Amino acid sequence: MAYGPLMSELPVARGPSPVAHDDVAAHVRGYLMVFGILMVLTLVTVAVSSLELPHGPAVAVGLTIATVKAGLVAAVFMHLRHERPLIYAALALTAVVVVSLFGITLWTETDGHAPGTRFTAPFTVAEPPATGETH
Amino acid sequence: MSDTHAHAEIPFTTEVRPDTGLTNPKLGIWLFLASEVMLFGSLFSSYALLRMGAESWPHQRSILNVPLATLNTIILISSSVTMVLAWAALKTRNLSRYRLYMGLTLLAGVGFLVVKSFEYSEKFEHALYPSTNNFLGLYFTMTGLHACHVIGGMIVNAYLLGPGTRMWRTDPERFTNRVEVAGIYWHFVDLVWIFLFPVFYLL
């Protein structure tokens, strides 16, 4: 299968090449724009958290903003926006496994314990039966 | 050692491998990061399970230092930008600008660790240790593991800023690819912090 060059695969400029410089300059503008958005979102996250929202909405807002920020970093800074199918396939498999890991872990919360009682201290340990033998 | 082995070179460091469409270092770093996602994913799921299963949980914001963590978030995001600008400088064959941006990236890494050490020492002064409760155990484990990743990235970046720069004279394409791969790792470290920050400091 033949692949065309990605921006990251463009050759290093051998000399004063206006085309290469223009390409890179356009990408640099994109990086700076994303930097600005990330800064704004960081301040928004802190501002929203200071509102002391109920736990559910606070988690939803905080994690949504974090996911948007992470998506921008991955898509633009890590060049994932223009990447090869093999990378997408590897990351898709990773996502499936991570989501399954979270699902199985959190599933245990539904196995009969009342919410918030699984790790109630102190844990009780059954006493071993007295046998009268000494070792 | 045979002469063949002495001169063996890693294939596809600059040219794209036809069957994958990728250079080997690019594929390698993404597979490594996939394993890192699993590592941090397991810790985040542990946090969720312990917090959901707990009868009570500390008010995180009142234990941790939110202003310092916000400062660290700004430092780390800024370092991601300087890292990608360092790589872009190499694309335009501007080594002095590369050195400037890579130096700033390294400086930001040092700044992050200094702020983190202030945070840790503040906790220890108040007798708050990993053994104090589940929340602090998770906090020190996950932020400590993240700090180890920052240190690892800084070692690679320092090499690329110092002795590693020699490759620029002999093989600029390969050196530029090395910086890109190191950058992908560094952005991942930033990405992990983007989740650690709200989970531990804000929720």
- Write the H/E string of chain B, N to C: HHHHHHHH
The proportion of residues forming helix of chain A, as a percent range, comes to: 55-70%
The pLDDT mean of chain A sits at 80
What's the oligomerization state? Answer: heterodimer
Largest interface: A-B, 62 and 63 residues
Q: How many strands of chain A?
A: 0
Strand segment tally of chain B: 0
Structural class of the secondary elements of chain B? mainly alpha
Distance between the termini of chain B: 58 Å
Rg of chain A, nearest Å = 26 Å
Question: Average pLDDT value of chain B?
Answer: 94
Low-confidence stretches of chain B: none
Order of helices and strands of chain A: HHH
Spans of chain A of at least 5 consecutive residues whose pLDDT stays below 50 are none
Report the sheet with the most strands of chain B, covering strand number, pairing sense and barrel closure.
none
- Inertia-based shape of chain A: flat
Helix/sheet category of chain A: mainly alpha
Helical proportion of chain B, percent range: over 70%
Give the terminus-to-terminus CA distance of chain A: 72 Å
- How large is the count of helical segments of chain B? 8
Shape of chain B: elongated
Describe the structure.
The complex is a heterodimer of chains A (135) and B (203). Chain A is mainly alpha-helical. Helix content of chain A is 58%, strand content 0%. In chain A, α1 runs antiparallel to α2. The radius of gyration of chain A is 26 Å and the shape is flat. Chain B is mainly alpha-helical and 203 residues long. Chain B is 78% helix and 0% strand. Chain B has eight helices and no strands. In chain B, α2 runs antiparallel to α6, α2 packs parallel to α8 and α4 packs antiparallel against α5. Chain B is elongated. The relative contact order of chain B is 0.15. At the A-B interface, α1, α2 and α3 of A face α2, α4 and α8 of B.
